[in-house]
Specification:
Helix content of chain A: 25-40%
CATH topology of chain B: MetI-like fold
Order of helices and strands of chain A: HEEEHEEEHHHEHEHEEH
CATH class of the domain at 3-90 and 166-264 in chain A: Alpha Beta
Largest interface: A-B, 27 and 21 residues
Shape of chain A: globular
Mean pLDDT of chain A: 91
Strand content of chain B: under 5%
Mean pLDDT of chain B: 90
Largest sheet of chain B: none
Oligomer: heterodimer
Number of domains of chain B: 1
Largest sheet of chain A: 6 strands, mixed
Low-confidence stretches of chain B: 1-7
Distance between the termini of chain B: 41 Å
Radius of gyration of chain B: 24 Å
CATH architecture of the domain at 3-90 and 166-264 in chain A: 3-Layer(aba) Sandwich
Helix content of chain B: over 70%
Number of helices of chain B: 10
Chain lengths: 272, 270
C-alpha cells in the first residue's frame, strides 16, 4: 500500500460519533432521562476499541446507535463518512444473548447474511466452511444449535458475523453470559480472528480484565448522564496471548482503569 | 468389579419395559371395556338389536369390507378432510402470519379472527345450509372453518412471540423487512403453526363427521346416521370404531410430521 493511500485511510475515521444525545421518555411523564449526553468519538480503521463503564452509563445504547438499531435523539453517526440510517451488513453486531437462529444448522446460520446479499450458493458454501473451520466447528457444520454448548453457539455467532465481511464489528458484551473459563478462551480466539482480518472493533464490556486484554484503546464512560469520561491507550504489545494477562503493563493498566471506575462510581452511603 | 447390566439408568424401567407398559395397559383398558359390554350382551334380558354382541359388530365390519362400501365411505371422508384441511391451513397460515407480524394488518384482520374464535364451527352449519346448500362445497366449508380456527390463532401467536434479538440479528446481517418476515418470523412460528395444524386436523375430522351426519349420501358420518335410522346398531358401533381408528391414524401422521418440522426446537413437543 502506498503512503498516500495509507494517509487517506488514517484521515477518515471508520466511525465518527458527532454530538450524539439519547433521551428516553419516562413512563410517569416527568423530565426525560438522558441516557447519552453529547458523545463525540472517532474510531480509526483497524483499531480495537473497548467501551467500559458501570451499569446505566449508556454503553450498550451507544453501540446500538452506531449499529443503527436505535436512532439518536440528536447528533449523527458517520460510518466511512456516510451517516448511519438503520442497520447495515457492513456493521456486524454480536449480542450478549444467544442470537443464533435455532431453526437453521450451523452452516445455514453462517450463510444467512451472505444469502441476504444474494451471494451465489457455491461461494456461500465455501465461505461457511472457511469460517466454521476458523472457529473450530468444522465437525459441527450440519448440527442444529440445540446440539451445541453456549460457547460453541457464540462461535457460530462470531463466524456468522465474520463471514458477512463487515467493515466494523460491534460487540455488546458478547461473552457476558459465558462461564469464566469459556470467556477467557473466547477472548483468545477473538484476538486470533481479529489478527487475521484487522477489522475495526467496538467492544462493550463491564469487565476490566477483558477490556485491557483485548483493546488498543479503552473508552471509559460514566453514568447519569451517560458520557465519555476518559480515553486510555493500552500499552500491551501484540500479538497477545495468555502470558499478556500476567505482564506488568497489563497489571498497571488494569489498576489505573479500576481506580478510574471507582472514582466515577456514584457515591454510596456506607452500610452501618 | 460389578458387571454392567441392562439397568443402566438407576433403577428406572428400561425403554422397552416402558413401551410394553404403555401399550399393554392401554390395550388392557380397551379389552376390559369390550369385555364388560360383551358380558352384558350375553344376559338373557339384553336386546340383540339395540345392544349387539361384539361378534355381530365384527360381522358387520367384514360385510362392509366384502362389498367395498367401507372403503368408499372412508375414501369420501378422507377426500373431504384433505381438501378442507389444505384450504383451511393455507388461509390460516397466510392470515395468521400477516396479522401477527405487520401491526396494521393485525388491526385489520384481528376482528375477523376474534369473531370466529369463540364460535364452534358446527354452529355455522344452519347458516351454511341456507347460504351454500347441502352439496360438497357446504361440507368442505365446515371443515375449512374448523381447521382454520386453531391454526390461525397459533400462527398469529408464533409470529408475535419472535424474540427481538433474532429480528435485530437478521437486520444487522443485512436482511430486508420481507426477508426477516419470511426467514425469521415464519420459521420461529413453525412449532406454533404445526401444533395448531394438529389441533386443526382433529377439529376438521370432528366437524366432517357432523357435516356428513346432516346431509350426505356417503362418508363415515353418513354410514352411522343411515345405519341408525335403519336400527342397524351393529353397523353404528362398527362405524364409530372405524372413525376412531382413522382419526388416530391421522393424528399419528400429524405427530410424525410435527416431530420432523420441529426437530431443531429445544421445546419438547407433546
Amino acid at each position: 500500500m502506498s503512503d498516500a493511500i495509507e494517509a487517506a485511510l488514517q484521515a477518515t475515521p471508520a466511525i465518527e460519533i458527532k454530538d450524539v444525545w439519547r433521551t428516553f421518555q419516562r413512563l410517569d411523564g416527568s423530565a426525560p432521562f438522558t441516557a447519552l449526553q453529547d458523545i463525540r468519538l472517532d474510531v480509526r480503521a483497524g483499531t480495537f476499541v473497548a467501551i467500559i463503564g458501570g451499569s446505566g452509563c449508556g454503553k450498550s445504547t451507544l453501540l446500538r446507535i452506531i449499529a443503527g438499531l436505535v436512532p439518536p435523539s440528536r447528533g449523527t453517526v458517520l460510518h466511512e463518512g456516510k451517516p448511519v440510517h438503520g442497520p447495515h451488513h457492513s456493521r456486524g453486531f454480536v449480542f450478549q444473548g444467544d442470537a443464533v437462529f435455532p431453526w437453521l444448522t450451523v452452516r445455514r446460520n453462517i450463510e444467512f447474511g451472505l444469502q441476504c446479499r444474494g451471494i451465489p450458493a457455491a461461494e456461500r458454501k465455501r465461505t461457511a466452511e472457511t469460517w466454521a473451520a476458523a472457529v473450530g466447528l468444522a465437525d459441527f457444520i450440519e448440527a442444529f444449535p440445540k446440539e451445541l454448548s453456549g460457547g460453541m453457539r457464540k462461535r457460530v455467532d462470531l463466524a456468522r458475523v465474520y463471514a458477512n465481511d463487515p467493515d466494523v464489528l460491534l460487540m455488546d458484551e458478547p461473552f457476558g453470559a459465558l462461564d469464566a473459563q469459556t470467556k477467557e478462551r473466547m477472548q483468545v480466539e477473538l484476538l486470533g480472528l481479529w489478527d487475521r482480518t484487522r477489522k475495526t472493533v467496538l467492544f462493550v464490556t463491564h469487565d476490566v480484565d477483558e477490556a485491557v486484554f483485548l483493546a488498543d484503546e479503552i473508552v471509559v464512560m460514566a453514568a447519569r448522564p451517560g458520557r465519555i469520561a476518559e480515553r486510555i491507550k493500552v500499552p500491551l504489545p501484540r500479538p497477545r496471548d495468555e502470558r499478556s494477562r500476567v505482564s506488568d503493563a497489563f497489571e498497571e493498566t488494569r489498576r489505573r482503569l479500576r481506580k478510574l471506575l471507582e472514582d466515577l462510581a456514584p457515591a454510596t452511603t456506607p452500610a452501618r | 468389579m460389578t458387571r454392567p447390566t441392562d439397568d443402566m439408568n438407576g433403577g428406572a424401567p428400561s425403554r422397552r419395559a416402558r413401551w410394553l407398559a404403555k401399550y399393554g395397559l392401554g390395550f388392557l383398558t380397551i379389552a376390559v371395556i369390550i369385555g364388560v359390554y360383551w358380558l352384558y350382551t350375553l344376559q338373557p334380558q339384553a336386546n340383540r338389536t339395540l345392544t349387539p354382541p361384539p361378534p355381530k359388530v365384527v360381522a358387520a365390519f367384514v360385510a362392509a369390507i366384502a362389498d367395498g362400501s367401507l372403503f368408499v365411505n372412508i375414501g369420501w371422508s378422507l377426500y373431504r378432510v384433505v381438501i378442507g384441511f389444505a384450504i383451511g391451513t393455507l388461509l390460516a397460515v397466510l392470515m395468521g402470519c400477516t396479522a401477527g407480524w405487520f401491526r396494521y394488518a393485525g388491526y385489520v384482520l384481528n376482528p375477523i379472527i376474534e369473531a370466529i374464535r369463540p364460535i364452534p364451527a358446527l354452529a355455522y352449519i344452519p347458516l351454511i345450509i341456507v347460504w351454500v346448500g347441502i352439496d360438497e362445497p357446504a361440507r368442505i366449508l365446515i371443515i375449512v372453518l374448523a381447521v382454520f380456527k386453531p391454526t390461525v390463532v397459533n400462527t398469529r401467536q408464533g409470529m408475535q412471540e419472535v424474540p427481538r434479538i433474532y429480528v435485530e440479528a437478521a437486520e444487522a446481517l443485512g436482511a430486508s423487512r420481507m426477508t426477516t418476515f419470511w426467514r425469521v418470523g415464519f420459521p420461529n412460528a413453525i412449532p406454533y403453526i404445526v401444533s395448531g395444524m394438529r389441533n386443526g386436523l382433529a377439529a376438521g375430522f370432528l366437524a366432517l363427521v357432523a357435516a356428513e351426519l346432516i346431509a350426505s349420501s356417503n362418508g363415515l358420518g353418513f354410514l352411522i346416521s343411515n345405519a341408525g335410522q335403519n336400527l342397524q346398531i351393529d353397523v353404528v358401533l362398527m362405524g364409530i370404531v372405524v372413525i376412531g381408528v382413522v382419526a388416530t391414524l391421522l393424528d399419528a401422521i400429524a405427530v410424525r410430521a410435527q416431530a420432523y418440522l420441529t426437530r431443531w426446537s429445544e421445546v419438547r413437543q407433546s
